[in-house]
Write a structure and sequence with these properties.
The chain is an all-alpha fold. The radius of gyration is 12 Å and the shape is globular. The chain contains five helices and no strands.
Length: 87
C-alpha cells in the first residue's frame, strides 16, 4: 500500500478520521484531500493511532497548543501533524 491506497483503504481512513469536533474534521479532511494519494501504509497506521486521541487533546495538538506525548510522540505521527498544521 505504499502510496497506493485502495478505495476501501481510503474509505476506512476517512471513516476513522471523522471527529466529534468540527475543527478537527476540517483540518483532517483538508489534509486528506491534499495528501491522501501520497500516504504510505506506515502513514495510515500512524494516522489510525493519532485518531484514537481524544477530540480536545487532538485539537490542541493540531493548533499547536500542546505537544504530542506518550504513545503519540512518534516521528511519523509528528511529521503528519506538522503537515496538517502547514495546510
Amino acid at each position: 500500500m505504499s502510496g497506493d491506497l485502495s478505495d476501501l483503504d481510503r474509505a476506512r481512513l476517512r471513516w476513522r478520521a471523522r471527529r466529534g469536533l468540527l475543527e478537527n474534521d476540517l483540518i483532517i479532511t483538508r489534509f486528506l484531500d491534499a495528501r491522501e494519494a501520497q500516504l504510505t501504509e506506515t502513514d495510515v497506521r500512524a494516522l489510525t493511532q493519532l485518531f484514537e486521541m481524544g477530540d480536545n487533546e487532538l485539537l490542541d495538538v493540531l493548533l499547536g497548543r500542546a505537544d504530542l506525548s506518550g504513545a503519540y510522540d512518534d516521528p511519523v505521527i509528528r511529521r503528519l501533524v506538522e503537515q496538517m498544521k502547514a495546510l
